[in-house]
Amino acid sequence: MTLNQLKYALALQKHGSFKKTAEKLSLSQPGLSLQIQKLEDDIGLILFDRSSSPVKVTSDGAVFLMRAEEIVVSANDLRQFTTRHRNDYSGRIVLGAIPTLAPFLIPLFAEDLQQDHPGLKLDIHEMTTELVIGSVRNGELDAGLISTPVNLFGIETIPLFYEKFYIYSPGTNEKKTEIRLKDINYKKLWLLNEGNCFRDQVNNFCDLKEIRKDKDFVYRSNSIDALVRIVDSKGGMTILPELTTLSLALDQEQNISPIPGKAREIGLILRKNYDKQRFILKLEEYIKKSIPKKMLSSQGMEIVDPGIRNR
User: Fold this and answer.
1) Is residue 170 very low, low, confident or very high in pLDDT (cuts 50, 70, 90)?
2) What is the value of pTM for the model shown?
């Protein structure tokens, strides 16, 4: 006995004709007859008197079809409930995001997401990569926004977009031509504090010893904005991921120059088989809609390894 067979029997009761019922259901008449026969064989009752015209429901059939209608109506209610549930994003997402990303990405998508889904509450924590990973793993966070790819046991990754690297240096390159790594003056390079994932990525393609050598003034910061301000006031240069350049003031935009051929991947991380996955997929949708389309592809660039391995 199947739900469809119950629906066919109820339709036959309504129309009183195999031919008319088959037309309404877009079935062949022999196919409909076969399904009704299978249902009767399965339940051990004769539901319809086929010798009459129109087809009549037997006394046993009338009782059975009353119950069948209750089941079909309940099934339809259940289907509507699941449809509403799939489209209802009322709830809470607790999200961790790294400092070089959170202030620049969150404003791009959060307002639109909450306008379209007013029942969805976002609880966003700005955290280092290590803390994001640990908090996703122990369940304190529903998901994390970090630099990927990563290789972590029990963690699923959803790649989102790719950021080029830019040199920010006032007045040194007004034509915004590309700057090669070998042309970077490490003595004038300001970077984020040790242990920051973006700092580690920069170290992967710059000469770490030269960056640290003979500094007369050391400024240890976890903020991209702070580095931009220190460069504006003290001179020198810093390295910015692409998304941060979208929030620069007009007079600051002339100070950026692309570093060719390299990018960092930004992705969402979550626990595998997580029950809020549909919320995370909705988050992915809105983030990707908010990002310039050119950043959704790596465009053949080398993805700088954030160095996060199984732990």
Assistant:
1) confident
2) 0.67
Strand 237-241 vs strand 155-168: parallel, antiparallel, or unpaired? antiparallel
Q: What are phi and psi of 24, to 5 degrees?
A: -65, -35
- What mean pLDDT comes out for the span 188-209? 57
Domains and CATH numbers, the chain: 3-87 (1.10.10.10), 91-303 (3.40.190.290)
What is the arithmetic mean of pLDDT over 2-20? 91
Beta strands 120-126 and 91-97: pairing type? Answer: parallel
Q: Which amino acid is at 117?
A: H
Which has the minimum average pLDDT: 16-20, 79-83, 116-120, 256-260?
Answer: 79-83
What three-state secondary structure class fits 185? coil
| DSSP calls for 27-51 | --HHHHHHHHHHHHHHHT---EETT
Q: Is the pLDDT of residue 197 over 90?
A: no
Question: What are the tokens at 40?
Answer: 């009767």
pLDDT tens-digit readout, 209-256: 555 555 555 555 667 888 888 888 888 888 888 999 998 988 888 888
Where would I find the H helices in 88-207? 102-116, 129-137, 197-205
Strand partners, 269: 144, 157
Query: Which own/partner pairs from 108-111 qualify as long-range (CB within 8 Å, at least 24 positions apart)?
Result: 108/287, 108/290, 108/291, 109/283, 109/286, 109/287, 109/289, 109/290
